[in-house]
């Protein structure tokens, strides 16, 4: 059996791995010059460093993603953090880690010790969590009104619920649905002891999806074609099935089955409009909306963050990540990320990348030894009103307030990147617009974090969708899955 997988993000990679391990002949077509999709890296020109466009983290409850890394032998590049650090603007911090009590009580001590919540806040939050645990997991009502009817206040929303959910869902409580908020808290923090633990890659994503994954593919006979953008899928005129894919270079490729693992907003370019009119399940995809995530890459002349990461409570910044990667980590990627090669036309992603407004293009003092800090701001629309320059200024000012070492540190170099279509928005009832992996075409499966996986837009959702799409292909081919 021959399968063509279109899109080398995590969804396409997971589908490819699942099929290749069963001896299926897979050709993977990726528009960009590298694999990984939205979970990607760029090479910063002045420092020569490989950096993630945005730091990606996995939680312990992302079981299929962690299993995927084990399958391809990359699990040692992810390190589970023993604790989380929560920082408040006045510069105080609390550690968040599990006690030896069984779930769901293992994190109670950490919550009770949080310096940024009053005793009254903590009682309200515990009541809210208990209500969340008891409510219908599939009912996707508007989250914030529901939280308020369960005793939550402006303060607990800002200091607790939004602190966790804006990063986890890329959506604030005010507009999110309850279903995926519940999933984050129940599966991440209540149901199992290790669900909350944050797994951080210790190498840039470029390394994860670069040579080592390609070696796995080579061993399993997968044909990977980079810079092989698909222009459209050609349909069989007599029956609802795909006849071939046409690439941008006008060449055509035929297979028994096809998996389309591109972002949802690319589907109308690749499939004929008549298909959307004929099949409401495809037409509904158009209702999905996207939200941006902004990352600020800052190089200082000295270390400013004393921990590998920190969560900021009540600030503009949400997560801080310290780098560099441990000594001895060598990279062998070749791509240079720049505004030119990140243009929407290349692969459907649209990112804005700006050097610091105040820094010269190649600042004299910056080097690979400069101290790098990444600041991540999810659901960043409201913070972008004044532009990247304004946001950078506010973030640097905030860092000087939060971190004593930053007060005297000199900012040597900076980049601000906004991924405008970072994730689909988990608004109430969003699942009615997410299609199953089995498309109405008999030899086409869909994959992507936006398909029906029961997860919000995450690497976990992408991997699950890839596995489910592979299962559809195997079932339709009459093979045991
Ligand atoms: C800034 C940012 C931060 C994030 N942080 C996290 C995080 O911390 N934790 C987490 O779990 N998730 C995070 N996510 C979400 C996560 O990155 C995505 O959910 C996941 O990577 C999606 O994978 P995918 O395969 O579904 O889609 P994509 O990664 O978008 O992959 C689709 C692939 O299809 C390719 N393609 C598109 N059109 C064509 C074509 N015509 N022909 C061939 N190929 C094509 C694209 O180039 C791309 O490689 C973040 C996302 C962003 C943008």
From TrEMBL:
<feature type="region of interest" description="Disordered">
    <location>
        <begin position="332"/>
        <end position="363"/>
    </location>
</feature>
<feature type="compositionally biased region" description="Polar residues">
    <location>
        <begin position="333"/>
        <end position="345"/>
    </location>
</feature>
<feature type="domain" description="Amine oxidase">
    <location>
        <begin position="10"/>
        <end position="474"/>
    </location>
</feature>
<dbReference type="InterPro" id="IPR036188">
    <property type="entry name" value="FAD/NAD-bd_sf"/>
</dbReference>
<dbReference type="InterPro" id="IPR050464">
    <property type="entry name" value="Zeta_carotene_desat/Oxidored"/>
</dbReference>
<dbReference type="Pfam" id="PF01593">
    <property type="entry name" value="Amino_oxidase"/>
</dbReference>
<protein>
    <submittedName>
        <fullName>FAD-dependent oxidoreductase</fullName>
    </submittedName>
</protein>
<dbReference type="InterPro" id="IPR002937">
    <property type="entry name" value="Amino_oxidase"/>
</dbReference>
<dbReference type="InterPro" id="IPR017830">
    <property type="entry name" value="SQase_HpnE"/>
</dbReference>
<dbReference type="GO" id="GO:0016491">
    <property type="term" value="F:oxidoreductase activity"/>
</dbReference>
């Amino acid at each position: 059996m021959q399968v063509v997988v279109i899109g080398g993000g995590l969804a396409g990679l997971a589908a490819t791995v699942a099929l290749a391990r069963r001896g299926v002949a897979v050709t993977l077509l990726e528009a960009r010059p590298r694999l990984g999709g939205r979970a990607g890296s760029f090479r910063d020109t002045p420092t020569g460093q490989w950096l993630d466009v945005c730091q990606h983290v996995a939680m312990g409850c992302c079981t299929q993603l962690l299993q995927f890394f084990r399958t391809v032998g990359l699990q040692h590049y992810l390190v589970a953090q023993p604790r989380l650090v929560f920082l408040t603007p006045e510069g105080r911090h609390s550690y968040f880690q599990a006690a030896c009590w069984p779930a769901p009580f293992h994190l109670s001590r950490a919550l009770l010790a949080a310096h940024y919540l009053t005793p009254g806040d903590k009682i309200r939050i515990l009541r809210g969590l208990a209500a969340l645990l008891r409510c219908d997991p599939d009912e996707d009502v508007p989250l914030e009104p529901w939280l308020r009817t369960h005793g939550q206040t402006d303060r607990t929303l800002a200091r607790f619920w939004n602190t966790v959910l804006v990063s986890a869902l890329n959506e604030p409580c005010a507009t999110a649905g309850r279903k995926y908020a519940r999933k984050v808290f129940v599966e991440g923090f209540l149901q199992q002891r290790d669900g909350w633990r944050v797994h951080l890659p210790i190498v840039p994503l470029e390394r994860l999806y670069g040579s080592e994954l390609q070696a796995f593919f080579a061993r399993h006979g997968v044909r990977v074609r980079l810079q092989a953008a698909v222009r459209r899928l050609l349909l069989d005129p007599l029956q609802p099935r795909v006849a071939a894919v046409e690439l941008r270079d006008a060449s055509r490729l035929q297979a028994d089955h096809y998996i389309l693992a591109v972002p949802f907003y690319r589907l109308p370019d690749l499939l004929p409009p008549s298909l959307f009119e004929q099949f409401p399940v495809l037409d509904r995809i158009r209702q999905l909306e996207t939200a941006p995530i902004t990352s600020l890459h800052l190089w200082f002349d000295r270390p400013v963050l004393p921990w590998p990461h920190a969560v900021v409570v009540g600030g503009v910044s949400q997560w801080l990540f310290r780098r560099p990667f441990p000594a001895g980590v060598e990279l062998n990627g070749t791509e240079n990320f720049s505004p030119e090669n990140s243009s929407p036309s290349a692969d459907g992603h649209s990112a804005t990348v700006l050097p610091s407004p105040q820094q010269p293009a190649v600042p004299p003092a910056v080097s690979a030894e400069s101290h790098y800090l990444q600041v991540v701001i999810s659901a960043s629309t409201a913070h972008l009103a004044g532009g990247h320059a304004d946001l950078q200024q506010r973030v640097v000012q905030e860092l000087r307030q939060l971190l004593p070492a930053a007060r005297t540190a000199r900012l040597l170099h900076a980049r601000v990147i906004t991924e405008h279509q970072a994730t689909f928005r988990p608004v109430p009832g969003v699942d009615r617009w997410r299609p199953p992996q089995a498309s109405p075409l008999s030899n086409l499966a869909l994959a992507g974090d936006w398909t029906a996986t029961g997860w919000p837009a995450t690497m976990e959702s992408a991997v699950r969708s890839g596995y489910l799409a592979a299962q559809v292909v195997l079932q339709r081919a009459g093979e045991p899955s």
